[in-house]
Amino acid sequence: MNIRLRDNKEPLPMELLLLADPSAEMVASYAERGECWLLAEDGGPPIGAYVLLPTRPATLELVNVAVAEERQGRGLGKRLVLHAIERSCGLGAATLEVGTGNSSIGQLALYQRCGFRIAGVDRDFFLRHYDEPIVENGIPCVDMIRLSMDLPRSGAGAGTSGPGSFSDRQAGIDPR
Protein backbone atom coordinates (compact mmCIF):
# COMPACT_ATOMS: atom_id res chain seq x y z
CA MET A 1 0.00 0.00 0.00
CA ASN A 2 1.13 3.52 -0.64
CA ILE A 3 -0.03 7.05 0.05
CA ARG A 4 0.28 9.57 -2.76
CA LEU A 5 -0.76 13.14 -3.46
CA ARG A 6 -3.83 13.32 -5.70
CA ASP A 7 -3.08 14.80 -9.10
CA ASN A 8 -5.30 17.88 -9.62
CA LYS A 9 -6.44 16.37 -12.93
CA GLU A 10 -7.87 13.34 -11.11
CA PRO A 11 -11.45 13.51 -9.87
CA LEU A 12 -11.88 13.81 -6.13
CA PRO A 13 -12.71 10.46 -4.50
CA MET A 14 -16.05 11.91 -3.37
CA GLU A 15 -17.63 8.58 -2.41
CA LEU A 16 -14.74 8.03 -0.02
CA LEU A 17 -14.54 11.60 1.34
CA LEU A 18 -18.30 11.67 1.95
CA LEU A 19 -17.84 8.87 4.49
CA ALA A 20 -16.16 11.42 6.78
CA ASP A 21 -18.25 14.48 5.86
CA PRO A 22 -21.82 14.18 4.53
CA SER A 23 -21.76 17.54 2.70
CA ALA A 24 -20.50 17.27 -0.89
CA GLU A 25 -20.40 21.07 -1.06
CA MET A 26 -18.16 21.35 2.03
CA VAL A 27 -15.88 18.51 0.83
CA ALA A 28 -15.43 20.05 -2.63
CA SER A 29 -14.69 23.45 -1.10
CA TYR A 30 -11.91 22.40 1.24
CA ALA A 31 -10.50 19.64 -0.99
CA GLU A 32 -9.83 22.13 -3.77
CA ARG A 33 -8.04 24.50 -1.34
CA GLY A 34 -5.88 21.83 0.27
CA GLU A 35 -3.84 18.74 -0.50
CA CYS A 36 -5.76 15.51 -0.99
CA TRP A 37 -3.71 12.39 -0.24
CA LEU A 38 -4.84 8.94 -1.36
CA LEU A 39 -4.14 5.52 0.15
CA ALA A 40 -4.30 2.65 -2.33
CA GLU A 41 -3.01 -0.81 -2.87
CA ASP A 42 -0.53 -0.86 -5.74
CA GLY A 43 -2.42 0.06 -8.90
CA GLY A 44 -5.81 -0.08 -7.21
CA PRO A 45 -8.46 2.54 -6.53
CA PRO A 46 -8.21 4.66 -3.37
CA ILE A 47 -9.33 2.91 -0.18
CA GLY A 48 -8.44 5.85 2.06
CA ALA A 49 -7.88 9.58 1.82
CA TYR A 50 -7.18 12.69 3.83
CA VAL A 51 -7.19 16.42 3.11
CA LEU A 52 -4.62 18.79 4.60
CA LEU A 53 -5.56 22.48 4.53
CA PRO A 54 -3.51 25.57 5.45
CA THR A 55 -5.57 27.70 7.83
CA ARG A 56 -3.23 30.27 9.43
CA PRO A 57 0.50 30.99 9.29
CA ALA A 58 2.40 27.85 10.40
CA THR A 59 -0.90 26.00 10.99
CA LEU A 60 -2.47 23.20 8.98
CA GLU A 61 -5.76 21.42 9.53
CA LEU A 62 -6.55 17.80 8.84
CA VAL A 63 -10.09 18.32 7.54
CA ASN A 64 -11.11 14.87 6.32
CA VAL A 65 -9.82 11.37 7.07
CA ALA A 66 -11.74 8.60 5.35
CA VAL A 67 -11.29 4.85 4.93
CA ALA A 68 -13.54 2.61 2.83
CA GLU A 69 -16.09 0.98 5.13
CA GLU A 70 -15.02 -2.57 4.29
CA ARG A 71 -11.39 -1.68 5.20
CA GLN A 72 -12.05 0.09 8.51
CA GLY A 73 -10.68 -1.30 11.76
CA ARG A 74 -7.32 -2.34 10.28
CA GLY A 75 -5.14 0.64 11.17
CA LEU A 76 -5.53 2.46 7.85
CA GLY A 77 -7.01 5.58 9.47
CA LYS A 78 -4.07 5.67 11.85
CA ARG A 79 -1.69 5.32 8.93
CA LEU A 80 -3.33 8.31 7.20
CA VAL A 81 -3.20 10.45 10.36
CA LEU A 82 0.48 9.59 10.94
CA HIS A 83 1.24 10.46 7.31
CA ALA A 84 -0.55 13.80 7.73
CA ILE A 85 1.56 14.53 10.81
CA GLU A 86 4.74 13.66 8.93
CA ARG A 87 3.69 15.77 5.93
CA SER A 88 2.87 18.73 8.18
CA CYS A 89 6.31 18.51 9.81
CA GLY A 90 7.90 18.37 6.36
CA LEU A 91 6.04 21.53 5.36
CA GLY A 92 7.43 23.31 8.44
CA ALA A 93 4.10 23.76 10.20
CA ALA A 94 4.19 24.49 13.93
CA THR A 95 0.67 23.24 14.63
CA LEU A 96 -1.64 20.61 13.17
CA GLU A 97 -5.32 20.84 14.04
CA VAL A 98 -8.26 18.52 13.51
CA GLY A 99 -11.92 18.73 14.38
CA THR A 100 -14.49 15.99 14.74
CA GLY A 101 -18.04 15.61 15.95
CA ASN A 102 -18.90 15.15 19.60
CA SER A 103 -20.52 11.86 18.55
CA SER A 104 -17.44 10.54 16.70
CA ILE A 105 -16.19 8.33 19.52
CA GLY A 106 -13.78 6.24 17.41
CA GLN A 107 -12.26 9.30 15.74
CA LEU A 108 -11.77 11.08 19.08
CA ALA A 109 -9.89 8.03 20.38
CA LEU A 110 -7.80 7.74 17.20
CA TYR A 111 -6.69 11.37 17.20
CA GLN A 112 -5.74 11.27 20.88
CA ARG A 113 -3.81 8.00 20.41
CA CYS A 114 -1.89 9.76 17.62
CA GLY A 115 -0.89 12.61 19.96
CA PHE A 116 -3.59 15.25 19.48
CA ARG A 117 -5.00 17.01 22.56
CA ILE A 118 -8.43 18.54 22.97
CA ALA A 119 -8.15 22.30 22.44
CA GLY A 120 -11.77 23.37 22.61
CA VAL A 121 -15.37 22.93 21.55
CA ASP A 122 -17.12 24.81 18.74
CA ARG A 123 -20.64 24.62 20.13
CA ASP A 124 -23.46 24.01 17.64
CA PHE A 125 -21.00 23.83 14.69
CA PHE A 126 -22.92 21.06 12.93
CA LEU A 127 -26.26 22.77 13.53
CA ARG A 128 -24.92 25.96 11.91
CA HIS A 129 -23.16 24.35 8.93
CA TYR A 130 -25.22 21.27 7.97
CA ASP A 131 -28.84 21.22 6.84
CA GLU A 132 -29.54 17.61 7.78
CA PRO A 133 -29.15 16.24 11.32
CA ILE A 134 -26.19 13.92 11.87
CA VAL A 135 -26.41 11.03 14.33
CA GLU A 136 -23.47 8.73 15.10
CA ASN A 137 -23.31 5.99 17.70
CA GLY A 138 -26.86 6.95 18.71
CA ILE A 139 -25.65 10.45 19.65
CA PRO A 140 -26.75 13.67 17.89
CA CYS A 141 -23.69 15.34 16.36
CA VAL A 142 -23.99 19.01 17.25
CA ASP A 143 -20.60 20.24 18.52
CA MET A 144 -17.17 20.21 16.86
CA ILE A 145 -14.45 18.94 19.20
CA ARG A 146 -11.25 20.77 18.24
CA LEU A 147 -7.92 18.99 18.77
CA SER A 148 -4.39 20.19 18.07
CA MET A 149 -0.80 19.04 18.13
CA ASP A 150 2.40 21.06 18.43
CA LEU A 151 4.84 19.82 15.79
CA PRO A 152 8.64 19.62 15.99
CA ARG A 153 10.20 22.40 13.93
CA SER A 154 13.73 21.04 13.56
CA GLY A 155 15.92 18.09 14.44
CA ALA A 156 14.94 14.45 14.51
CA GLY A 157 11.49 13.73 13.20
CA ALA A 158 10.95 17.19 11.72
CA GLY A 159 11.53 16.18 8.13
CA THR A 160 9.55 13.95 5.90
CA SER A 161 10.89 10.95 4.12
CA GLY A 162 8.16 10.98 1.51
CA PRO A 163 4.68 9.64 1.00
CA GLY A 164 4.00 6.24 2.46
CA SER A 165 7.20 6.17 4.52
CA PHE A 166 5.51 4.57 7.52
CA SER A 167 5.69 0.81 7.21
CA ASP A 168 2.53 -1.21 7.65
CA ARG A 169 3.95 -2.63 10.89
CA GLN A 170 4.83 0.82 12.32
CA ALA A 171 1.31 2.05 11.63
CA GLY A 172 -0.32 -1.06 13.12
CA ILE A 173 -1.78 -2.12 9.77
CA ASP A 174 -3.52 -5.44 9.25
CA PRO A 175 -2.95 -5.98 5.50
CA ARG A 176 -5.98 -8.28 5.14
Automatic annotation (TrEMBL):
Gene3D superfamilies in the record: 3.40.630.30
GO-annotated molecular function: acyltransferase activity, transferring groups other than amino-acyl groups
Pfam (any one): Acetyltransf_1
Domain (N-acetyltransferase) ranges: 1-152
Region (Disordered): 155-176
Alphabetized InterPro entries for the sequence: Acyl_CoA_acyltransferase, Bact_Acetyltransf, GNAT_dom
Highest rank taxon of the organism: Bacteria
UniProt keywords, alphabetically: Acyltransferase, Transferase
PANTHER family assigned: AMINOALKYLPHOSPHONATE N-ACETYLTRANSFERASE-RELATED-RELATED
Name of this chain's protein: GNAT family N-acetyltransferase
